[in-house]
Structures are given as C-alpha cells and as structure tokens.
Specification:
Chain lengths: ~190, ~375, ~625
C-alpha cells in the first residue's frame, strides 16, 4: 500500500518540476535611440500627477484619456467646455507642430514659426515662463481653443480649453487664474 | 502493479479532486474582489500550494489538476470496461478531457503574453511581457554595440546570487518588491548605499488589484568587483534615469523593466483607425494597418479586433491604443502559446463522444410513460 | 373570465394588421441615440422611464410620445407637470421639496432646488464613483436628469411656432399671415429682410417708431433670446450630410448656424416644422401632410438610410408588450393545470392548459424573433436577452417533456419557469432601453451566436433539470410507494442532466475558443468563466457520483436543485464582483434577490430531501 502511494506521489512530483528552463539571456544591440514621446510602463496615477492647482468651484472633473493628467467640464452661460492638462516628455512635439495642429482642428490655416511666436501671449508663473494662445475661427464659432504651453525641465505641460468662441471669451479670466495656480507637488508653500 | 493502477485510476480520486477544485474556484473567484485577477490566479490556480489566510497550506490548483491528469490518464489507459463498443462515447469523451488537461498544462508552462506599442510611422521588433520583469545589465563601453546580460524574474528572488561571464562582478538580490515607491530620504544613508539609494529609499506598497498598476522594485548588492563600485543599489520600474556604474573600466547601465523578447521580424504601423458607435463614446472597432517586415521584405497586413495576425508561433491582437500629441500609437497584444491547438481538438473530440453517448441513451431516458393513476 | 381570454385571443388578429401597411406616424420618426437609429417612440418611452419610472403617464392616459410633444410645444406647462419621480426623501429634502406619497415633482420645482445646491453637485461629482453614497448618486442622477429634461424641451424650439407676427406689413414681408405664429427657423430664413428692416429702424428715435417697428424690435429680441437655446441638441432627428464620414445624426439647432444643408435635411426640417405647427393648431390635415413630407425626406437620404419598416416594427413591439401577453398565457396555463389536478386529472383541462402554454410560447418566440430582426444580431447579446432566452429554453424543454410524458409534469415546469423568467426580465426592462449597442469585443456575430446561445441553452436545461429534481422529491413525499412513477422521473432527471452537461460543457469551451480568438488566451480564471466551469464540474461530479452509486436518486435530485443555485450565481452573481473582461451587466438590488432566492432554494431543497428520506424510511418499517 505504502509503495503504491509513494509511486503515485513520485509521478506527481515529476510532473510538478516541469520548468521552462533558462532564465539568463545575453545579446547585442546597436546603441539605443532617444526615447519616444510616449511615457512607458507605469500608468499615470491620478492622485500623484506631480502637480497641484486651484480650480473654480463650478468646474467639474471628468474622466479624460489616459494621456491626461486631469480633465474638467467647464460650464459657462451658454454651454460647457472641456479642459485638459497633459504632460509630455521633452518638448512634446514642439510649439509650431502643436499650435498648427490645433489651428487645423478648427479649420484655420497653419502659420509659420515666427507668426506663431508673434501670436503668443507670454507670461510668467510659478512653473516658469509660459505662452498662451487664443485660437478662434469666426466661421466656426462653436469650437475654439484657449491653450497654454509651459516648458518644464524635461517635459512640457499643455493646458487646453475647448469651448465655443463666446465661451472662451467668458472663461478667459478664470482660465488664466487657474493656469497661474498650477504648482509642482511638494513644492514649499 | 494492478493494485497501483486500481488506486490511481479510481473514480473516488476524481470525485475528491473535482470537489477540491470547485472549492478552489469559489475561493479564487471571491478573492479577486480584493486582490485582483492576476494575484488570485497566481495564488489559487497556478500555485502548487495555496496559503489560505496566508498561513494554512492547502493543495493549489496546479497540483490538483496534475493529480486529475494522472488519474484520468491511468483510467483511460487501463480501465478495461471502457474499451468496449457500447462505451465508445464515454471513452472518447474522456480522451478529449485528457487532451484538454494536457493542453492546459502546456499553456501554463510554455506560453507568454505581452504587448507591443508602435507609433504611427514607426516600427517595433520586440514584445514586452505583461507581468514578468527582467533585470537588465547593459555594458555600454563599446562605441557601436551594447552588450546585454538579462536575468529573468524567476531568479530574482531574495538571497539569490547572479553572475555571468559577461560581468566582472556578482549581484546579490537583497529584496524584490512587487509594488513600491521611491521616497526621498529624511536621514543620511549609510556609506554602502550607492547611486539612487543615496538619496532615496524604496518603500514597500500594498500590491494593486490591477497588476499593471504595480511598480516593482529591487535592491541588490554588487560584490566582488574589486572596486569602489561594490555596494547596495536600487531600481524601480519606470525610473526615468537608469542606474549607471563604472566597474573596472567598463560602463554599465542597470535597469529593471518588463521582460523583453526580441523577435526575428518587425511590425511597422502604417495607419491606426478607430470607429465609434456614432454619437457615443463606446468603441465599435479599432484596426491597425501594418507592414510585417522580415529579412527586409515588408508584407501588408490589416490587424482588427477579432482578426489577429499569426506569425512564427506568435499571435498579435488589436488590443488598444495610446493617444499622443503627434498621433496615435497602436497597442497590440502579443501571445505565444504552445498548447494552443489542444482545446480545439479536445472540444471536438469531447462533443463527438458526448453526442455519441447521448444519441445512444437519450431515447431510453426520455421514453413515453403511461400515466399512472394516483 | 371567458371574455378576457377571448379578448386576448383575438388580440393577435387585431394587432397583425398594424404590422403591415400601417401609415408612417410621428412615433416612427428615426432618431439617433445610444449609437443606433431608433424610432422616436422608443426614445420617448425610455426618457420618460428615466424621469418618471414608467413608460407612460398612466393617470393622465398620456403616452410617452404625446408627453414629449406637449413638452416641446408648451415648455411652461411641461415644466409644471409632475414627472420627476424622486424615490429618496433625503433628496427631496435637500431640494427643499415636500415629501408626498406619490413623490412626483415638476421640473420647475426640481430646478429651483438644484440651483441652490450647485456646490453639492460639484462636490459629489468630484468623488470617484465607488465612494459615492446612495444619496449622492441619486442626487447627481436628478441633476443630470434635469439637465437632459431641459435639453429635450428646447431641442426643437427653433422649429416650434412660438413667434407671433401680428402686424400685416411685417407679416407680408416675412412670408406669413397676420396673427399666425412662425418658428425661429422660418424667420432666420428671411435674415436679409430682417436685417434690412432693422437697419432702417435702428437709428429712428423712440417717438418715431411705428407699430410695426416696435413689433420688429420685439421679434428680433425674441430671436436673440431663442438662439440661446442652441446648446439643446438632445434630439438627433436629422440625418448627417453625405460628406460626413462619422455618420453622426444632428439635432435641429446644430443646423441653424447657416451651414449648407443637403436637400433631404431641408425636407426633414421643414416637415418637422410643419408637423409642429399642425400639432400646435390641432389641425390633422397639416399634421398628415407633414408626415408624408417627412417620410419623403427619409426616403431621399443617400447614405445610411434607415429602414422605415424596421422602425415601424419596433414601434409596434413597444406597444404590443408581447412578453406581457406571453406571461399572461403562462399563468393561465398554470391555473388550468391546477384546476385539472383538483378535478381528478381532467384531461380536458390539461389540454386547455397545454394550449395556453403553446400560445404563451408563440408570443414569447415572436418577441425574440422581432428583437433579432430589429437589431440584426443573434438572440442573446445582453443580460436581459439571456433572461428572456433562458425562459424560452425552459418552456421548449417543458413542451418536449410533456410530449413524451403527457402527464402534466412538463406543463408544470413550463408554465412556472416561463412566468418566473419573464418576471425577472420585466425587472431588467424597467431599467431602461433593452435594445442597446454592444462594446467592441462583443461585436463578433459568429462567436456571439454560438458561445452565448449554447451557454444560455445550458443554463435553461440545467434549470429544467433542477425543476424535475424538485418534482422528484415532492413526488417521493406524496407517494413513496409509486416506484414506476419515481423511476420514470428518475430516468428523465438523468437524461436531462446529460443534455444539460452537453450544452454547458460545449458552451464553456466555445467561450474559451472565443476568448482565444479575440485575446489570445483560452482560459483566464475570471469570474464568469469560473461560474460556467463550476456548473460543468457540478454536473460532472453528480453524474459520476450517480454512476458509482455513491448517491441515490433523491441525493441526485438535491444535487440538481443545488445546480440551479450555481447557475444563478454564475449568471447574475459574477456581475457583482466586477472583475475581468466579463463585467458588462449591471443592476442594483440583484444581490438581495439572489440572496433570497438562494436561501429559498436551500431551504426547500434540503427540506424536501430530508422529508422524502423520512418517508422512505417509514416504508421500510
């Protein structure tokens, strides 16, 4: 009896020790290129985006895409707009590319780098210098942008408000105050 | 011998194992609420021993199913009664079940799951595992080529000593944390802490339910380098600046990252499309138009949901996507599974078996019955 | 009694003509909502359900579609109608409303209360969903309901005849007759004329203004005020232009910005405007003419034209309440079966019962078929549909069993289970639109059809097996000496179990194959998979225990009853765990019902088992 049981157990153990083998590997690769704009590995935890801010009471946080640090629904007298904060590595694609892309989204023609620089409204905040862009297409007044680009040490912050042209004008004050309130987490305050 | 066979193939063992397996399934399902799907799988189903409440050891899913496999094999091979024409349906059914278990075993041991992220216009030739990590040491001394020495998750256990002829030092694993966060030190570190650990320490966190939200970390000691580089170092997943060290005139980089498997071919993303159910945020379908490039020769392929690309033992599924300012990047799930065909074969065989048996016995079991007076 | 049944019977024939050759009605207007084109009737019913809790305002005999149009044509009155059903006294208190027994409130009352509590709304919204209390969730629900109510009210304000033009001079210039009301849209078409007139009036001093000048100013002010309604885009009644790739339908206000319109868009907008003015005046002729124009407009759509016949079918289904009729027949079958037992197993009564069961099944089947036809997909795609389908399966099995046995056992199983599953279905239908769209992963029709259909078939047959298990134990208690009857029921139990095993096993494996095809992994140990696996394993275990003689027929019967509990857990319970790729069904209150059901089954199962055992024991003595 005991012999039988032992045999059985041995068979089971033999099957248990199945393993897929080698756990050390080596290879060669040419030198690694620059990192892409996509932040890898860890998902952005909503609680620790790395920044803090103060927002008006009526702005309602919403579920944005995974790229956004935060998202808000911003009500104004005739509707509501969508505000997003994104942080992208490096220069996030660059000033020209981003502004022209936004212009394209509301049916405006692209501008040259110099024209864009001229259009920008420059300012200074806790995070450093920033540039504000007001993008309105009079022939498509239902969708307009108010954006702020803040270059940081190794990344760039994009704060973008999308609303109707009227909404943009109404919200500009609040938007500016909000942008100015953005600080780095754990900064001495 | 006959006695062994009788015991090993006894239906009693089967009933006990299946009851125990049911218990594990219930416990494992309920546990998912607290510890998440991946952790529950590891604890209840993939493990040989399941520690209930962390302290009571009971047979785990793996060993239970192995016992079932042995039981079933012996029964199929040696039960004389079964090899009779009138029991052919039953026999075929059990052979099918056996194949299913074997297939399951092969998958458990030999498969891997990961993903591939490709930006529009770019290409990738590697798969990043979903769950397993690797400790990678890159010798960057050479001008043109980097030399990689990689240690996989199974050997990154506490107390293990890793060494390789490529490296002129040893690595002793001090701790492997499933989830951690780097915290700035409030008191100065001991002199043997080097690199990032001089200013930070890795603090253990409770593992998240969703395994991909965990940030693994590792602390290790470099020994035997015969230089001042000996000491305790730390790494965590997603560290933006890799740990470097110069040991005996060789430049090294240390990284912990998701296990990478390089493929003998590359996939280039030409265009990513997503279609929403009109007027809603519910996705109807995504698709990636790609080039499969092997030996420099590209071949156009369309990967859609429910329409994967199968190549060289790998299957690439359209999984999701990432939106960035310059366009979209597709995320393809990449699965390598050696036991893949078993469930298909097994299910066909089992259904044939069961159908045969049913056709034979159902007429008897559902026969008309004269009404019986009360 | 007889009259009721005769009426029900003839209802079939009365309803049939309404299927074919019915004229296009306002109920059939196509509207895009929740990702699909549905008839306005469905939209109206579901919206009313969300606000009011019912699909029509019964005490006023007001159908949902009439309610919507009343609201659109008379916003003030509509705002006063008490259609907001607030079930939580805490919520009414926080809105400064008085709690009454009917707890129904008007939009005006609700919005007044909400205006004072906007910070609360913001605060609750900021919290992640899991951490919100019931009160907070319901409060937010009222808030969003109120917003949507307002949007619906004003979505057609650009087309409604709200602006009266009395002055004859103005009327002529603006293409209308004095005293006739026109819509914003109509006036906007005469924008040039209006601007011209305004320029001449603009600089006139107050004293020089004529009557028509003053009216012009009023009209312009009204126009400007009305234009602030352009946020209201809830009713996507207008098909997209042929250039729009996304195929997103539009709401009338979206087209008021002067953008170029496709001819069919114009046709539909004009028809809608005409309908509204006809309805406001109560003029049938104008309304009918508008309906004809509307139908012509839809036929003129070039891309993505909705099928009017399908729309009409859906409107019909909404009204016909096929499943209510079906459940009435099932209950009648049960009553007549009971009667037949009282009258010494009267064959005559049993035949009537069988007849009712068959009729119930007919309506049941037709309902399922129509749903498939309307949505163009296999019968089981959502949790609601699985309930309806399992009910269908149990009745079909019961009919087959009755055909073989002819002793009423099948009738009992069929009538009872058919009715029970319909009632569960009603519970789900009360939650909202049951004809919804699916998430991408469920979009594959072939695997959907095979895996889900097979598994639900398996659930159904397992439930039938459990029912027979109950009957076995009951029969054992009633007459333990009747071995022939017991043996025959026993054989049936075993046979049905084998069939149940076939479907549940095959269904579970198909699920694995579907997962392998879609995500690359055959088995993931997620709750829904585990649930199905448990059902299969239980079947396998019971069969093996029976074959090895470890368990007697009454033990087997008890085992089958336990399997019903396992099916319910796998079917509804797993959604409460919310993990893995399988979590797409949701309703509250399920946990409580599931618990009650399990307790009930455990008590009756074990109770009858031990009772039966003791009856048998007494025999031996």
């Amino acid at each position: 009896m005991i012999k039988n049981q032992i045999t059985f157990i041995l068979i089971v153990i033999a099957l248990l020790s199945c393993d897929s083998g080698n756990h050390t590997r080596t290879y060669h690769l040419p030198k690694a290129k620059n990192k892409s704009f996509i932040q890898p590995a860890v998902e952005n935890k909503k609680e620790s985006s790395g920044f803090t801010w103060e927002k008006p009471n009526l702005w309602i946080p919403t579920e944005g895409t995974s790229m956004r640090l935060a998202s808000f629904e911003v009500p104004y007298s005739t509707g509501s707009g969508d505000l997003s904060i994104m942080e992208l590595g490096g220069d996030g694609g660059g000033l020209e590319a981003n502004v022209n892309r936004w212009r394209g989204q509301i049916g405006l023609d692209p501008l040259t780098k110099i024209e864009i620089e001229n259009e920008a409204e420059n300012g200074v905040s806790e995070l450093g210098t920033y540039q504000l862009f007001r993008l309105i297409n009079l022939e498509k007044k239902e969708s307009a942008f108010l954006t702020v680009i803040v270059p940081l040490r190794s990344s760039t912050l994009f704060i973008k408000l999308n609303a109707s042209a009227d909404g943009i004008l109404e919200l500009e004050e609040d938007f500016k105050i909000f942008c100015l309130s953005i600080k780095l987490e754990n900064s001495n305050q | 011998m006959k006695q062994i066979i009788k015991i090993v193939s006894s239906p009693k063992i089967f009933v006990y194992t299946i009851i125990w397996l049911m218990v594990l399934v219930v416990l494992g399902t309920l546990a998912q609420r607290d510890i998440g799907l991946y952790a529950s799988q590891q604890k209840y189903f993939s493990a040989n021993i399941t520690w209930l409440g962390g302290i009571i050891p009971v047979p785990g899913g793996r060993i239970t199913m192995i016992i079932m496999l042995v039981n079933l094999t012996f029964m199929v091979l040696f039960k004389q009664n079964l090899w009779k024409i009138k029991k052919i349906g039953v026999l075929i059914m059990h052979i099918g079940a056996l194949l299913l278990l074997i297939g399951g075993g092969l998958t458990a041991i030999f498969s891997s799951e990961g993903n591939m992220v490709i930006e529009e216009g770019a290409q990738s030739n590697r798969v990043d595992d979903y769950h397993d990590m690797e400790l990678t040491i890159i010798n960057t001394s050479n001008e043109i080529l980097d030399k990689y020495t990689v240690f996989d998750q199974p050997i990154l256990g506490k107390g293990n000593i890793l060494s390789h002829e490529n490296l002129n030092f040893n690595i002793e694993i001090i701790s492997y944390l499933r989830n951690c966060e780097p915290l700035k030190r409030t008191a100065p570190a001991g002199f043997h802490y080097k690199g990032m650990l001089k200013n930070f320490r890795l603090s253990t966190l409770r593992p998240e339910k969703e395994n991909n939200r965990n940030r693994p970390g590792i602390t290790y000691r470099i020994t035997n380098s015969g230089s001042s580089s000996d000491g305790i170092y730390g790494l965590f997943l997603g560290q933006s600046v890799p740990q470097t060290a110069v040991i005996n005139n060789q430049n090294y980089e240390f990284i912990i990252r998701r296990k990478r498997t390089y493929l003998p071919f590359a996939i280039e993303l030409l265009d990513f499309k997503k279609v929403m159910h009109t007027g809603t945020g519910i996705a109807k379908s995504y698709s990636s138009e790609v080039n499969l490039i092997e030996n420099g020769i590209p071949r156009r392929v369309l990967i859609e949901m429910n329409e994967p690309l199968r190549h060289k033992g790998y299957t690439f599924f359209q999984s999701s996507f990432i939106e960035g300012p310059e366009g979209e990047a597709t995320v393809l799930a990449a699965v390598k599974n050696y036991g893949r065909s078993f469930p298909y074969i097994s299910s066909i065989i089992m259904s044939i078996g069961l159908l045969l048996h049913l056709l034979k016995s159902i007429p008897k079991l559902l026969q008309k019955n004269p009404r019986v007076a009360e | 009694m007889m009259k009721l049944y005769l009426r029900l019977f003839f209802s079939i024939f009365l309803l049939l003509p309404s299927l074919y050759g019915r004229d296009f009605e306002v109920r059939d207007f196509p509207i895009q909502d929740g990702g699909r084109i549905k008839p306005l009737d469905t939209y109206a019913r579901n919206q009313l359900l969300a606000f009011y809790g019912k699909r029509s305002v019964k005490h006023e005999k007001l159908s949902a579609i009439d309610w919507v149009f009343d609201l659109i044509l008379n916003p003030e009155k509509g705002g006063e109608k008490k259609v907001f059903n607030i079930r939580n006294p805490e919520v009414t208190a926080s809105l400064r409303l008085e709690w009454t027994n009917e707890h129904k409130y008007s939009f005006n009352e609700v919005i007044l209360g909400l205006k004072e509590q906007l910070e609360l709304v913001s605060e609750f919204y900021n919290k992640p969903d899991e951490s919100r209390t019931i009160f907070e969730k319901q409060f937010l629900e009222i808030y969003f309901n109120a917003l949507r109510f307002k949007e619906i009210t004003y979505s057609l304000s650009c087309l409604a005849p709200f602006i009266e033009v009395n002055d004859s001079l103005l009327a002529e210039k603006l293409n209308t007759s004095p005293g006739k009301a026109v819509s914003y849209a109509h006036l906007v078409k005469q924008f040039h004329t209006l601007t011209e007139m305004f320029l001449t009036v603009m600089n006139k001093p107050e004293e020089e203004l004529s009557q028509s000048d003053k009216e012009l100013n009023m009209i312009l002010l009204t126009l400007q005020h009305t234009s602030s309604d352009d946020y209201a885009q809830a009713l996507k009644l207008i098909p997209p232009s042929p250039l729009d790739e996304t195929g997103t339908w539009l709401s009338p206000w979206e087209l008021m910005d002067g953008r170029p319109r496709a001819p069919y868009q114009d046709k539909i907008l004009n028809a809608l405007e005409k309908y509204l003015s006809g309805r406001a005046l109560g003029d049938e002729n104008i309304m009918n003419s508008a309906l004809t124009d509307y139908e012509a407009g839809i036929s003129a759509i070039t891309i993505g034209k909705p099928d009017i016949n399908i729309l009409k079918k859906e409107t019909w289904v909404n009204k016909a309440n096929l499943f209510y009729i079906s459940v009435a027949f099932y209950l009648s079958a049960f009553i007549f079966l009971g009667l037949s037992w009282m009258f010494h197993q009267s064959k005559y009564l049993q035949r009537i019962s069988a007849g009712f069961l068959g009729l119930g099944l007919l309506y049941h089947t037709y309902g399922i078929y129509l749903r498939m036809f309307i949505m163009g997909r296999p019968p089981v795609s959502t949790l609601y549909e699985s309930v309806i389908f399992v009910g269908f399966v149990t009745v079909v099995c019961a009919v087959i069993i009755e055909y073989f046995r002819r002793d009423g056992l099948g009738l009992f199983v069929g009538a009872l289970s058919g009715a029970i599953f319909h009632y569960i279905g009603f519970g789900y239908a009360a939650d909202g639109d049951t004809l919804g769209m699916l998430v991408a992963v469920l979009n594959s029709n072939f695997w959907l059809a095979t895996h889900v259909t097979t598994i639900t078939l398996g659930y159904g047959v397992t439930v039938v097996a459990g029912f027979i298990g109950h009957l076995y134990l009951i029969q054992m208690i009633r007459n333990p000496k009747n071995n022939t009857l017991l043996k025959s029921i026993n054989k049936n139990m075993f046979g049905v179990t084998l069939i149940a095993l076939f479907f549940t096993l095959f269904g579970t494996i198909l699920g694995g194959i579907w997962a392998d095809q879609s995500w690359g992994r055959f088995w993931g140990w997620d709750p829904k998979e585990n649930g199905a696996l448990l059902i299969v394993m239980w079947h396998v275990m019971m069969i093996h225990m029976r074959i090895t003689g470890k368990v007697k027929p009454e033990g087997f019967a008890l085992g089958l009853i336990m399997n019903i509990i396992i099916v319910m857990m796998a079917w509804f319970g797993v959604n409460l765990l919310n993990v893995g790729l399988h979590s797409y069904g949701f309703t509250s209150g399920i946990a409580r019902n599931l618990f009650l059901f399990t307790a009930l089954e455990l008590i009756t199962g074990f109770g009858t088992y031990y009772w039966a055992q003791s009856r048998k024991g007494r025999l031996v003595v």
